[in-house]
Specification:
The structure holds two protein chains of two kinds. Chain A has two helices and ten strands. By secondary structure, chain A is α+β, with helices and mostly antiparallel strands. Chain A has a single domain (about 10-160), classed as 60s Ribosomal Protein L30, Chain: A (2-Layer Sandwich), CATH 3.30.1330.200. Chain B is α+β, with helices and mostly antiparallel strands. Chain B has a single domain, classed as 3-Layer(aba) Sandwich (Chemotaxis protein chec), CATH 3.40.1550. The relative contact order of chain B is 0.22. Classes of the chains: A alpha+beta, B alpha+beta.
């Protein structure tokens, strides 16, 4: 089952951990990220986008929320776009997140692993990445605007950036 | 509506007792540290769906001041003290016996006061848990973070998210002279910690 996030205002749809949301212009989709990845796949002509809040790199056959794992989120996002009659050619992707919030140094850095897995899943699906900002030790608030296709990234104590 | 009191409710109830006992010790330490000003009480032990965790805990995209202690290992977890900006400043100022700072940047001494609060409260809590479950637990040094609350919470729940779409969290509230404060502690135990707690409860006479 695909769980879609719901709009909490006309303009902003909050995408929680493991969720997928699909919207058209003029809606915006928003996620707050630490080690998770906010991935937006977008059709520029139709101004339709889908965003996933990816928590972990690999499902390893486990079931879970539709946007939880990088390897299952990307096919789930494409399926969602198909249901909205969005052609799958001409799609582009932007993503951000994958921080290491606690600045640890263990063998598994989940933020790095998430970023790598998202890149891999997009390559497998043949989707071109046109913007990304990953890593670091700070959280990010990302907003994807379906009207412009821009992803705005805010970090504590830094000016906002746009992909 | 009346719901059946099932095994899950019983397990949560038992964990609540154990967390309440640890919180009691933490409250005594907090009370000593703040010269009788601040106490803490266990608010809730609850299960929450992964996608609802930020909204459910009302930790959204606000910038918050936090002190984090990590218990590494299978029987581990993360303990996060969460303050809004004025609340954190106020606590630091009262510990330092001076007026709250107004510079947007926190001074080293203010950070140190809040970090030490996390250390004292966290260590009392962890020591009590260690005693209750019969396992030595050693927390990391506390660290000070100013960031989006949801971003920090996300990393804290990652170990549980590896195996489940439902998370177990323990929330502790602060009080000053009986009045509830807008500060709290969120403890996120690993599955190993939860299992150890359940085991200790079963082993209890």
């Amino acid at each position: 089952m695909t769980t879609l996030a719901t709009s909490n205002t006309l303009q902003d749809t909050l995408v929680g951990m493991g969720q997928l949301a699909a919207e058209r212009t003029p809606q915006r989709m928003k996620a707050v990220l630490g080690s998770c990845i906010g991935l937006a796949i977008y059709h520029a002509r139709l101004k339709t986008g889908v965003m996933a809040h990816i928590v972990l790199p690999d499902s390893a056959g486990r079931s879970g929320a539709p946007g939880k794992f990088a390897d299952t989120a990307v096919p789930g996002m494409l399926e969602t776009l198909k249901k909205l009659n969005t052609p799958l050619h001409g799609l582009t992707a932007k993503f951000a997140g994958g921080a290491n919030m606690f600045n640890g140094s263990g063998p598994l850095q989940i933020g790095d692993a998430n970023a790598e897995a998202v890149g891999r899943a997009l390559r497998l699906a043949g989707i071109r990445v046109v913007g990304q900002e990953v890593g670091g030790t700070k959280g990010r608030r990302v907003t994807f605007d379906c009207a412009s296709g821009e992803m705005t990234i805010e970090c504590a104590g830094q000016p906002a950036r746009t992909l | 509506m009346t719901e059946g009191y099932n095994d899950n409710d019983r397990a949560l109830g038992a964990l609540h007792e154990l967390f309440a006992s640890a919180t009691h010790d933490a409250s005594a330490a907090m009370c000593r540290w703040t010269c009788g000003l601040i106490t803490v009480t266990l608010d809730e032990v609850r299960q929450i769906a992964l996608e609802d965790v930020s909204v459910g805990l009302d930790i959204g995209d606000d910038l918050l001041t936090m002190v984090v202690l990590t218990l590494r290992g299978e029987v581990g977890g993360n303990l996060i003290l969460v303050f809004d900006e004025p609340g954190g400043r106020q606590l630091a100022a009262s510990l330092l016996r001076r007026q709250p700072g107004t510079d947007p940047e926190w001074s080293d001494i203010e950070k140190s006061a809040l970090t030490e609060t996390g250390n004292i409260l966290g260590c009392a809590y962890v020591n009590a848990l260690s005693r209750l479950i019969g396992t030595d637990l050693a927390p990391s040094a506390p660290y000070f973070i100013q960031d989006f609350g949801a971003s920090v919470l996300q990393q804290a729940v990652m170990t549980q998210a590896l195996t489940s779409d439902t998370l177990l969290l323990c929330e502790i509230g602060f009080h000053r002279e009986g009045e509830e404060l807008d500060w709290r502690v969120v403890f996120v135990p690993t599955q190993g910690m939860q299992a150890a707690m359940q085991q200790s409860l079963h082993a209890a006479p």
